[in-house]
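Appendix B. One record, verbatim.
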Amino acid sequence: MNRIMKTRKWRSVLAGTVLGISLAPSAYAESGDAEHLLKAMSDYVGSQTTISVTYDSDIEIITPHLQKIQFTSSGQVQLSRPDKLRATRTGGYRDVEVVFDGKLVTINDKDAKHYAQVAAEGTAEHLIDVLREEHGVVAPGADLLLPHAFDVMMADVIEAEVIGKGVIDGVECDHLAFRNVDTDWQIWIESGARPIPRKYVITSKGIAEAPQYTLRIKEWKSDVAADAFAFKPDPSATKIAESEFSDIDEVPQGTTKPGAH
């Protein structure tokens, strides 16, 4: 009898779980709601003159042996619109920072104890484009801080939906999902009066085993120290030419399968 009761009990639990899952799709909102929530986030973030965030990031790669490996880093981004930026990233293989004061950009490899500086003018948004196109710094999470993040992120979207609610570090968020030809991506946006991004996941569909990039924002502030964008080199660091600068990617060279990263 006890066995029968226990079996029935677990069947009830299982049925309730399945029922809960089966009911979830009916709670999905229309794609217009997803776009509306993303636009609200973009407008809010774009309206912030200064931003300081700390984050954790995970990037998955596929090795030549078809094994999926994840690399994890932490860092901070400080931004003062329109033309000042400091970004740090510390992981198991790289400890780097980029500092832009509106006139000079510094790329500092703390591990190798050398840095390069290049005269640069323009906005922080323009700098992000230069780092991506000329230095191979992908930084997908940087899109979230752009003044027109909505336009950039929605440029090639073919499907969007609201999945429902989620909780990130104890904070209730709206969970959105988007698709384009090459990637699926999700974003969790804090619910309420401060719609800031809390989590961002990009899945690469064009690569076998579908590796992912995950960004989790831990702390978000709107104040930045006045001297945050002044580069102060370590006394033991050496200044080198930009052309001498080595790879600063967070994934070690030779780890990935050709074409997979």
